[in-house]
Automatic annotation (TrEMBL):
Pfam families: bPH_2. This is PH domain-containing protein. The keyword Transmembrane applies. The lineage of its organism: Bacteria, Bacillati, Actinomycetota, Actinomycetes, Motilibacterales. It comes from Motilibacter deserti. The keyword Cytoplasm does not apply.
Amino acid sequence: MDTRSADAFDPPGTSWLPVSPRLASVRRGLAAALIGVPAVAAAVLLAVFAALPWALVPLLGGAALLAWAWAVVGRQVAAWGYAERDDDLLLRNGVLFRKLVVVPYGRMQFVDVTAGPLDRAAGVARVQLHTASATTDASIPGLPPAEAARLRDRLAARGEARAAGL
């Protein structure tokens, strides 16, 4: 019997846990600031130094770009997931370019939990995994702080147990 999965990004028997939808709020707020502020500034400058109808160009362009970013951020956040297995942690993300990272517990050196000001305001944190190889470092953004702390403690304990067995 062939037990291989037809989808390389969804191993059989894996229960994926999603990240918090509040991560989308943080990223959408950043997109609004990075797109909306320059669009409004350009519109004001065009209204002052050129004809008023030209001020609509950056506003409409900014609104279209912001609507596109809003949809993309929602899909990106929905694509994030992680799964704890017996010997490793799986992380997946990506909409256009999908990515699956497998981090063996025995390779973990330490686990960080970080949260910037916007993350704290939204009530989310990031779990950063540091491994023996810099190319396999991975992170899980947008976790509720309690889940981030639980995952940090669990991964650290599993990493110590696996490293002790080497």
